[in-house]
Each structure stands twice: as structure tokens, then as C-alpha cells.
């Protein structure tokens, strides 16, 4: 079982290490033709403008869009979330190119600079229901984006409370929902739409592998129509790989 990890810049090595810990091979993807060797892809965190320039240089955007449009599972973390959004605000002058596919509006640097990076316990009921473990996840936010608005087909997997005045200052960019004023006090930090998963934080920097196993099961969902027997076997193999490896501490960020 191999999963591609876009390896232009950012935390691709950390994702590959996280996959290795649960018995899955991660393949570095730098050229369009390499995408044909994988049927799931992780777009890691990093500097989104730099990643976009490198992706343009290697002519990756057409192949990445084709990959997403083909219904293959794609997971974007931090900068990867920005890449997958249909709309972004807070961009640098001149903007950047996007892959798109995720019906949402993302603020590129909502949580501020590197010095304003932080950790937080997020309520993750769907993750706990699917993958077991605690009903919270210790998330690491590094110069993180946030989703301000999502379409009706988007499933919100985690949100984070913010001061209401911070969101009100973005009123020209995002239409407020007066019928749901409580929404003004939260931003979305994890979401899924069909074959696309996105998180504003960095699960690869912790030893809690549940987001990675959640994503791998999305991969198997996509292959289920091809062979339900093979899917069942893969699920059993994945569970066997995880036996004795479930850990929810934070060895890097304590």
C-alpha cells in the first residue's frame, strides 16, 4: 500500500515517517508522471506561495487537478488546505495558483505569524467514532490558515473558537450568516468533501496516527467498487499493522 506525498517543500518527510509508523509506504511526488504510481495523495504543510511556484515549475497543477477530479483521495494539511480550497483571501500580492475542488473560503494566514503558532485540544467526535481513542486531538498550528465558510456538501470535522470581532473584521470578504450568530465565534480547521480531506493543523508532528488512518480508509472507500474482497483484506491488514502502535502522546510538541 503506497501513498504519494507531494515533496516540493514543507513537512513531507514528517508525513512519510508518520505513514511508516503504521506500516504504509509513502512515495515522494515531484513530477506529474509520478502520480500514476499512487492512488492517494497527501499535500503537506509548508510555505504555500513557494510550493505553488515549484508546482508551476514542474507543471504539476494540471496533473494534480486531474488526480482530484478523478475522485482519488487527497489530504491537504495547512498549506495543502490552501491549495485545495476553491477560494482564498489574505494572499500575498499577486496571489498564487490553486488546485481547487474543496468548496470553501480559506483565510491564508488566519492565525498569524510563526511566533503566533500554538497547540490546542480540538473536539473530534467523528475521528474518535471512526478511529477510536480520545474524543479530542492535540493539534499543532503553525502559521495556520482557517476556513471561514464552507459549502453545503462539506462535512466539518473540527472547529476552533475565535473572538467574534476577528471574524467581523472580515465581513467584506465573507457573507455573514445572521440566522446562525454562533458561527461567528468559530472557524473550521478540519473538513471533508467527498474524496478531499483537509486540516489547518499538522497531525504529522504528533504520534497520534488517527488522521492518517482516517485518510487511508478514504483510500479504501474509493477502491471498494473495484473489489470489496480486497478492501476487506486491506482493512484487516491495516488494523493488524496498528495493533500495539496506537499512541496519543506528543513526543515532539509536549
Automatic annotation (TrEMBL):
<keyword id="KW-0315">Glutamine amidotransferase</keyword>
<dbReference type="InterPro" id="IPR002161">
    <property type="entry name" value="PdxT/SNO"/>
</dbReference>
<keyword id="KW-0456">Lyase</keyword>
<comment type="similarity">
    <text>Belongs to the glutaminase PdxT/SNO family.</text>
</comment>
<feature type="binding site">
    <location>
        <begin position="46"/>
        <end position="48"/>
    </location>
    <ligand>
        <name>L-glutamine</name>
    </ligand>
</feature>
<dbReference type="GO" id="GO:0016829">
    <property type="term" value="F:lyase activity"/>
</dbReference>
<protein>
    <recommendedName>
        <fullName>glutaminase</fullName>
        <ecNumber>3.5.1.2</ecNumber>
    </recommendedName>
</protein>
<dbReference type="GO" id="GO:0042823">
    <property type="term" value="P:pyridoxal phosphate biosynthetic process"/>
</dbReference>
<keyword id="KW-0378">Hydrolase</keyword>
<feature type="binding site">
    <location>
        <position position="108"/>
    </location>
    <ligand>
        <name>L-glutamine</name>
    </ligand>
</feature>
<dbReference type="Pfam" id="PF01174">
    <property type="entry name" value="SNO"/>
</dbReference>
<feature type="active site" description="Nucleophile">
    <location>
        <position position="78"/>
    </location>
</feature>
<dbReference type="GO" id="GO:0008614">
    <property type="term" value="P:pyridoxine metabolic process"/>
</dbReference>
<dbReference type="GO" id="GO:1903600">
    <property type="term" value="C:glutaminase complex"/>
</dbReference>
<feature type="binding site">
    <location>
        <begin position="142"/>
        <end position="143"/>
    </location>
    <ligand>
        <name>L-glutamine</name>
    </ligand>
</feature>
<dbReference type="InterPro" id="IPR021196">
    <property type="entry name" value="PdxT/SNO_CS"/>
</dbReference>
<dbReference type="InterPro" id="IPR029062">
    <property type="entry name" value="Class_I_gatase-like"/>
</dbReference>
<feature type="active site" description="Charge relay system">
    <location>
        <position position="204"/>
    </location>
</feature>
<feature type="compositionally biased region" description="Polar residues">
    <location>
        <begin position="229"/>
        <end position="244"/>
    </location>
</feature>
<feature type="region of interest" description="Disordered">
    <location>
        <begin position="222"/>
        <end position="254"/>
    </location>
</feature>
<feature type="active site" description="Charge relay system">
    <location>
        <position position="202"/>
    </location>
</feature>
<dbReference type="GO" id="GO:0004359">
    <property type="term" value="F:glutaminase activity"/>
</dbReference>
<dbReference type="GO" id="GO:0005829">
    <property type="term" value="C:cytosol"/>
</dbReference>
Amino acid at each position: 500500500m503506497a501513498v504519494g506525498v507531494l515533496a516540493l517543500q514543507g513537512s513531507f518527510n514528517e508525513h512519510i515517517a508518520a505513514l511508516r509508523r503504521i506500516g504504509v509506504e509513502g512515495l515522494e511526488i515531484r513530477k506529474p508522471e509520478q502520480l500514476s504510481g499512487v492512488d492517494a495523495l497527501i499535500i503537506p504543510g509548508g510555505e504555500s506561495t513557494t510550493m505553488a511556484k515549484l508546482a508551476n515549475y514542474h507543471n504539476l497543477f494540471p496533473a494534480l487537478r486531474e488526480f482530484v477530479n478523478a475522485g482519488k483521495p487527497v489530504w491537504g494539511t495547512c498549506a495543502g488546505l490552501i491549495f485545495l480550497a476553491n477560494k482564498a483571501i489574505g494572499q500575498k500580492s499577486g496571489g498564487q495558483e490553486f488546485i481547487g475542488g474543496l468548496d470553501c473560503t480559506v483565510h491564508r494566514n488566519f492565525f498569524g505569524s510563526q511566533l503566533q503558532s500554538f497547540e490546542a485540544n480540538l473536539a473530534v467526535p467523528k475521528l474518535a467514532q471512526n478511529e477510536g481513542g480520545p474524543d479530542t486531538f492535540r493539534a499543532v498550528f503553525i502559521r495556520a490558515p482557517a476556513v471561514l465558510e464552507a459549502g453545503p456538501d462539506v462535512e466539518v470535522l473540527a472547529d476552533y473558537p475565535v473572538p467574534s470581532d476577528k471574524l467581523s473584521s472580515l465581513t467584506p470578504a465573507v457573507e455573514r450568516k445572521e440566522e446562525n450568530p454562533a458561527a461567528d465565534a468559530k472557524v473550521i480547521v478540519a473538513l471533508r468533501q467527498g474524496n478531499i480531506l483537509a486540516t489547518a493543523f499538522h497531525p504529522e508532528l504528533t504520534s497520534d496516527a488517527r488522521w492518517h488512518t482516517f485518510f487511508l480508509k478514504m483510500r479504501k472507500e474509493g477502491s471498494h467498487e473495484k473489489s470489496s474482497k480486497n478492501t476487506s483484506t486491506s482493512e484487516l491488514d491495516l488494523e493488524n499493522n496498528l495493533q500495539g502502535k496506537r499512541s496519543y502522546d506528543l513526543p515532539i510538541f509536549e
